[in-house]
Here is the input.
Amino acid sequence: MTKTITFNELRRLKDSLPDGSMHRIADKLNVTVQTVRNYFGGTNYDFGKNLGVHIEPGPDGGIVVLDDSTIYDMALDILKEQQADAE
Here is the structure.
């Protein structure tokens, strides 16, 4: 499912994930950790792929169109788990 957010929102989500989340997502999706990092704005395509992330210049870091929100949704689920564990 396509999702549109700002680049800064995407980075805030990435920065709020607990340690090991990138590896956890990569393992579940059978992709490299660098591919997950590229999804969140990284640019190392020697060791990872682009999974349909399109960035357009604009306010708040620019607009990001995610062709597939699977990684985004998994990141949100990890944050929900973290909140539930803290309660």
Notes: The helical segments are 7-16, 21-29, 33-39, 70-86. The longest helix spans residues 70-86. The radius of gyration is 13 Å. The longest strand covers residues 3-6.
